[in-house]
């Protein structure tokens, strides 16, 4: 699991075990980015970064699904800023409200994907995903859960419980060593949550988690084009510049 930060951040704690990385990355500067840009033909990771920055700038809860390809278990999340495209071909999303900004995001062509992205609103959470994933069997977040009972004391525990939907034996060993995060982030990362859902998709559950938390978004980065759980990275992205993230175990 990674608990970590963005380009302006430092890694507060990192632990690896059983092929799983657990980390909390804390931003040195909690202020959101001043401007949010999107390249005219972004990579999948660049697209995800633009969405993440949009979430921070607007303090709006997003549910982000993107196919980024395989990720090394020991590699940090790609937190680099979007480079300038040749000729300055990029969109400035800063002046736009969240709806128009997402509309612009869903219009662009993402270089590594065949189909476009779409977005829809689930209450106060905005979900962005490849259009072809809608109701497609085999996509991890489309799985329906008969009963989900979540009572946790922190964001890493919530991350663990979501992974257990797919892998009942999933354990974040780093949970045995709490308190690594900076004092100012502790109320945000060690925030209790209690959720009861039945017949909901995993996506619905993630939306409810960020809705109840009130100061974060979620992101899923798929390792394969079909959106399966294998190699998937799940992250919770705080509005104040922190990340809690881990990869699915590879059995």
Write a concise keyword list for the protein shown above.
251 residues
Could you walk me through the main structural features you see in this protein, from its secondary elements to its overall organization?
Helices cover 21% and strands 31% of the residues. It has one domain (2-247). It contains five helices and 15 strands. The chain starts with a strand and ends with a strand. Strands 1, 2, 3, 5, 7, 8, 13, 14 and 15 form a nine-stranded mixed beta sheet that branches. It has a two-stranded antiparallel sheet with strand order 4-6. With 251 residues, it is an alpha+beta fold.
Cα-to-Cα separation, first versus last residue: 16 Å
Shape: globular
* Domains, number: 1
The proportion of residues forming helix, as a percent range, comes to 10-25%
- Write down the secondary-structure element order: EEEEHEEHEEEEHHEEHEEE
Separate helix tally: 5
Assess the beta-strand content as a share of residues: 25-35%
Q: Roughly how many Å is the radius of gyration?
A: 17 Å
Number of strands: 15
User: What are the low-pLDDT stretches, counting only 5+ consecutive residues below 50?
Assistant: 5-23, 72-87
- Give the structural class: alpha+beta
* Quaternary organisation: single chain
- Characterize the main sheet: 9 strands, mixed
Give average pLDDT, whole number.
78
């Amino acid at each position: 699991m990674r608990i970590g930060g963005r380009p302006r951040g430092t890694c507060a704690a990192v632990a690896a075990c059983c092929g799983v990385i657990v980390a909390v990355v804390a931003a040195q500067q909690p202020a959101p980015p001043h401007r949010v840009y999107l390249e005219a033909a972004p990579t999948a990771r660049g697209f995800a970064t633009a969405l993440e920055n949009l979430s921070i700038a607007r303090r709006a809860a997003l549910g982000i699904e993107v196919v980024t390809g395989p990720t090394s278990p020991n590699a940090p999340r790609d937190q680099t800023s979007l480079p300038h495209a040749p000729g300055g071909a990029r969109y400035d999303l800063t002046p736009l409200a969240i709806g128009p900004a997402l509309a612009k995001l869903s219009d662009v062509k993402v270089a590594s994907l065949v189909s476009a992205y779409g977005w829809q609103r689930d209450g106060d959470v905005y979900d962005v995903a490849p259009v072809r994933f809608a109701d497609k069997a085999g996509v991890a977040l489309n799985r329906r859960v008969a009963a989900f009972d979540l009572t946790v004391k922190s964001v890493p525990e919530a991350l663990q419980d979501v992974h257990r939907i797919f892998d009942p034996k999933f354990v974040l060993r780093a949970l045995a060593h709490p308190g690594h995060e900076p004092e100012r982030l502790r109320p945000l990362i060690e925030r209790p949550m209690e959720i009861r859902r039945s017949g909901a998709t995993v996506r619905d559950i993630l939306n409810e988690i960020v809705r109840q938390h009130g100061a974060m978004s979620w992101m899923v980065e798929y390792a394969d084009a079909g959106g399966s759980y294998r190699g998937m990275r799940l992250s919770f992205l705080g509005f104040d510049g922190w990340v809690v993230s881990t990869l699915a175990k590879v059995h």
